[in-house]
């Protein structure tokens, strides 16, 4: 979704922002963190519930208004082991989960995403380009985290609607009108209404961290997963590296999937060590069998691209910082071409704020 910008500004580069913020933390925060860790003994961490708000927009990347144009998600995950008894009963019978040392969480979320072609001024969109689409979904999430083994398993089910009832045209054009920007003209050709289902599973495996000077820590991790449904079907895998302080506070900031995403939780800072934060860089590759936003409706005739890429990759880098019960993060993403007509990779950014309670 296009946001207000000057006529001379043709591209927004967000990666330097992340670097500048992390340098500021590097210069100002480490001494206090290191001293607090040395002065204080081990403190049993709080593992409370967390509310998160995430906004993803190409304004934070290439400054364009095309492809994956905008996404918003609000979600809540419960405190550790504050889950339905039935979930505990099921987890206790899964051989790969040790319920005695695994933190179980459950959550829910509401997401909205908008996809547009390259030229939104055309009343009749280019048939070679991706179709207009909106995607409104409700999700239910279950996460099992074993901090001793550095493993987090996540299962998420998304149920929603693709098409006019998702409100993509309403959200985009009303936002443009508020900013005095012309609205997108081709929404009459968007994907038709179709119920959407996605089942997404992911395992994150974090390796042992290494201690560095100035109280810094670094770690590496891998992930693998899949999605199954009429909206998207794919398998994915990738790697992430992090450097910072208090890496045990979480597995990564919240994102809107498909993405390199944690389960939406983090362990807040304490009175002795209120601050924590890290920079990260990662890659994710997906082998895609279906993407409704490129392949079109499954059960109805609709616009579609004829040459979707079967393999798509994401490169991401960013920072996450928490102070006591609040965490903020920024992630810059570069996504490879998803279809032949697309003019190069897409760049976008994700901003999130999380509040533990």
TrEMBL record:
<dbReference type="InterPro" id="IPR018707">
    <property type="entry name" value="LpxR"/>
</dbReference>
<protein>
    <recommendedName>
        <fullName>DUF2219 domain-containing protein</fullName>
    </recommendedName>
</protein>
<dbReference type="Pfam" id="PF09982">
    <property type="entry name" value="LpxR"/>
</dbReference>
<dbReference type="InterPro" id="IPR037107">
    <property type="entry name" value="Put_OMP_sf"/>
</dbReference>
């Amino acid at each position: 979704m296009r946001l207000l910008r000057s006529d001379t500004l043709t591209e927004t580069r967000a990666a330097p922002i992340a670097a500048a913020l992390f340098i500021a933390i590097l210069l100002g925060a480490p001494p206090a963190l290191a001293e607090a860790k040395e002065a204080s003994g081990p403190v049993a961490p709080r593992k409370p519930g967390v509310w998160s708000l995430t906004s993803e927009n190409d304004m934070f990347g290439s400054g364009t208004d095309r492809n994956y144009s905008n996404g918003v998600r609000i979600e809540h995950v419960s405190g550790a082991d504050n889950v339905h008894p039935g979930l505990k009963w099921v987890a206790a019978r899964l051989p790969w989960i040790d319920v005695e040392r695994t933190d179980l969480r459950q959550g829910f979320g509401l997401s909205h995403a908008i996809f547009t072609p390259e030229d939104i001024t055309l009343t009749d969109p280019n048939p070679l380009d991706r179709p207009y689409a909106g995607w409104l979904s409700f999700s239910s999430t279950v996460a099992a985290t074993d901090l001793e083994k550095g493993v987090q398993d996540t299962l998420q089910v998304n149920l929603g609607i693709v098409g006019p009832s998702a409100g993509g045209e309403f959200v985009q054009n009303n936002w443009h009108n508020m900013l005095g920007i012309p609205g997108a003209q081709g929404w009459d050709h968007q994907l038709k209404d179709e119920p959407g289902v996605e089942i997404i599973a992911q395992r994150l495996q974090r390796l042992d961290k290494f201690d560095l000077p100035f109280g810094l820590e670094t770690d590496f991790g891998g992930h693998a997963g899949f999605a199954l449904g009429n909206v998207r079907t794919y398998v994915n895998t990738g790697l992430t590296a992090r450097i910072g302080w208090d890496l045990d506070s979480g597995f990564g900031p919240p994102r809107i999937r498909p993405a390199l995403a944690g389960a939406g939780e983090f362990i807040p800072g304490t009175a002795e060590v209120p601050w924590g934060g890290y920079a990260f860089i990662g890659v994710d590759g997906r082998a895609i069998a279906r993407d409704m936003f490129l392949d079109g409706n499954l059960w109805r005739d609709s616009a579609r691209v004829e040459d979707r890429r079967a393999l798509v990759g994401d490169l991401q880098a960013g920072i996450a910082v928490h102070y006591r019960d609040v965490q903020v993060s920024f992630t810059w993403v570069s996504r490879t071409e998803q279809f032949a007509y697309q003019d190069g990779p897409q760049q976008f950014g994700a901003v999130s704020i999380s509040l533990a309670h």
